[in-house]
């Protein structure tokens, strides 16, 4: 039987968008069929979205993407003004991105573990598995505990996940978990940090459903009967809707489906509820392998979303692919085409800080 | 072009578990292969889960299930003591179940609409589409507005989704939306009502991500700078964890994946964070068509969850099927075998009411 | 490590259509959504197909169906005049159906073998695995050798697979592998036998691609330079086309996709090539989980087939389900509705015997 | 309504492997997870397969690949000694590759046609659809008729598909359908031509199941009672097995599943039947989106094949992706790594010509 050290010896390494100029490949793929052509069309829509400088770009993340080697790619999108807001599952942002920001790694699992043959053994060793990837559960517990401490450090009141994640970014800066601080502190770049520095808000609409949730449970347990931090999912929705009001032209780049997809689509209706005749999302891309035929939202087509008045039909594209293959191609095309060269970054966190001030008066 | 009335003329009708004795079919399927055998094994595990009267049964709902005709089946599970808590997407509970409780219907869409050919036309008519099903968007707006009013009627403070949904149940009783009130008020049975009456708590961990969210946005917009209702997702997680502490033996019946699956699995770890050495979920069933190979949680195997210490390996079964086919067979088996005949219902809402009192001291 | 005997101790048992009256279930499912409604509609189309006594029903089989417990169901369809011709992969007919007719069984594999963890061990024991099912490779070699002997016993000339499979039926009768011969010879009913007795032709368009192929290779190796049996796939296509010419109204009940689906659809075009303006298949049902988005035929929609002029648009239904769940419901509905009560069986083998005579003049 | 000319105005263009150096991308992907890592590992196995100069490489093709823009890529593999034999569905080789060799094109279909909305209209215009691709049915009829003429020109006897396809190659040369003949004759390079010139045998084990089948039906209809061409699928299997005997080390590069996958895997067993203790396929790669959970062969894992003694466990990799995305990466890696630089091409057609001579003595 392998030791824990032996099992955790090949770290996942993150793909660097800057190293792979896929522009000619995309140009070739647009004359083909199936996923190749869909991927090329998605890349072109992302290019259009970025060249339309009025457009605010919302990146949606579902599925275990950071653990799969896509962290650096997303950091690049944030730092290159190619994304204005992120809506994500908690796992991507906390358990995976923030976790790596704490200097921990994900590890490559041998093929023999993929289908569950070694899970009892992994349990013994406190190794958690995501398909073909390993995580050291003891390190994950440190992540949980860090979130607990951040929660404890906050003034007791309801927070949107966006506000909380901003505090996580501040914590990284304060604790030297930055590339600048570098080797002394094991600091690296991360999505939470980049978004903090670039004023890109991050929303996790089901924020308790991740490592942060364990911190919240511990916090609320200790504070029973006293003022405590709470995580207001309504506030998340309110804030994201404010962005739609402030910036009517929007586009969605969605990796996977789930809550992030639904949440980001719904702000068009929410704006309407607030009495503003908001335009549908003008551009929309989704990368997924989810099937449409079970009627679940994750695989539902963007055409279906147009019947709800959420997504415009003109520039929408579903891409049927696992994300580690399609996202480097779609994002890489826009990166190497310099589609965002005229963009400055919307600094949306600043809009929301103003909303916050109003609210707190 | 069809009129709205023509398009909305064939209501979805809900399957009645009591009418279909599938016990012999399940007994035949256990000697076959593939999904038939998996379905039979899942049915047997559900039977075991119910006969193990110590076991608290948590039903997880993701995907558009109520709109698909599964409302009555789930009501039957609640009323027959076959479920002790529900963790769901907001859409199932609010946009679909509560929506039907308001006397509205979902409608059968003609096959020609399934792939999006008529979505522009549907948009014009204010008809929303879920794959092969239609919804009257004007009725949905009434549902949104009802939620807005319920929100406004509450004392301003952070609520768990569970507390809020209980208020929705109370509203149904108060407004005659019950089978007893019957024809005068258009009242029908619903999951929200049955759960209210049977003290079965319902959690929606991403509660803003549904029709209720529109009500919250309107509410918080009006209350800016004033005390307001907030939806505390941390409290959801805290409460569900309390149930695990109060009732250590648990089983999961999961339809689809997404946030509900992750959330319900995670309470084992959360209990551990609170210093209690909680046992893994002893029984676990998941019905899904999600693929395992993209590494996303929805399709991840229950074996994988065992590496995280969340699900025990002994009695777990993945069923690869769209839910409208598999759930009537699995639930119907346990119903007609009277697997729950010795169960009284855990009345878990009462445990949580006590937690609430402590908190509010 | 388990012994071979221990591993092969739970035989697959075949579902008996007659035991499960699913008519009420189908009637309930037609008012639901997704696969439930699709299954109900498919059941109704099969009912219509059978009541339209002009219609010749072609059953297409792909995937490992017989090993999964569907043998008896298909035998029932043949014996109840619910099928007039079969187009299949070789594996279903030879390696699985004929194999069981030789008194061998398929066996239930433990869940731990499903994902390949024990395949090296199985190799040692000469146990072959189909997902969750085991086969004794030594018994399969006897099946191969039986086919070799049947091949050797034939007059050397080109045979359609249909002619050859008819000889396999004759061999079963001659060797007492029938239910009548019973316990003395281990005889059981089988698709090959029932089709032989009911004059239902069976075609395997890629007939070498199965256990029979091994017999052919051995036969042709021994006969090098001498007259030998050959398997004329062109003749298969010619014969199936003759059936379309003799019986213009046709319907397809397709389980899985692959070659059988394509082959059966193509006879409309082939008839056209022979100068006959053949009508498209009037009814068509396909049960499959194959995805449409990779452009492969197996998952291609029946609408797509209509663009080729192969399948009529009016009565076609794709059912998204693994076959062990959906086929018992679809076939069971028609069986218990007695949809075929006015049918006598088309005796299509007799038409082809006449074609054969002409050819051999 | 669009005219036929308007609908058929954007030809599919084939990706040129030589233009896209994906080596750095593959090197990055091997440190990621999911399909990226699987794709990288498959690329590495293909590299190993080619550097092992003893290894005969068998390329299996299922799904509509040529129509999707992969023709030139496969031609490049053949002309660069990266493939020694091909096992394919008939559609890829005849309806698509030979069809394009006749100077016809496949065309890009607008997104609105993808799900079947325009199929009735397409039928009127004699346009056939493959998911998002159009074919001119009148041109396809010319292809059918060409095959009919080639069939008529042959000496009446049983042919393997391999022999017949070689005649198709000869026909292309004779009729100036070559790049050399060029603009005068509309000649282009094709798989059938390249394989003819490079002595790479092509097998279509279900050869009637394609455009060629229509030619065969017409031919056999005209020759009733006279000597005729027949297509001996047994001979295909015998010939492919001879290659395994002559060249014991083999590797499989499989695109899709179906008959080609099964057929190529089975030659290990067939060799055994001929009394030769053949080694399993030493290397095996399959690109597919087929699900494993329905037990069908197309999605069955290569580990499962190892239980049958067909594929060695050491160097096998399933890649979960639609082929237009994964194949350019896998094949491009080996091409740009010059993995085949020490290979000369096995000239396997010459081995089979000798087998043929023996047989015909």
UniProtKB/TrEMBL annotation, chains A, B, C, D:
GO molecular function, one term: deoxyhypusine synthase activity
EC number annotated for this UniProt entry: 2.5.-.-
Matching Gene3D superfamilies: Deoxyhypusine synthase (3.40.910.10)
GO cellular component term, pick one: cytoplasm
UniProt-listed InterPro entries: Deoxyhypusine_synthase (IPR002773), Deoxyhypusine_synthase-like (IPR023496), Deoxyhypusine_synthase_sf (IPR036982), DHS-like_NAD/FAD-binding_dom (IPR029035)
Keywords: Transferase
Broadest EC class assigned to this enzyme: transferase
Family in the record: Belongs to the deoxyhypusine synthase family.
Protein name: Deoxyhypusine synthase-like protein
Origin species: Edaphobacter acidisoli
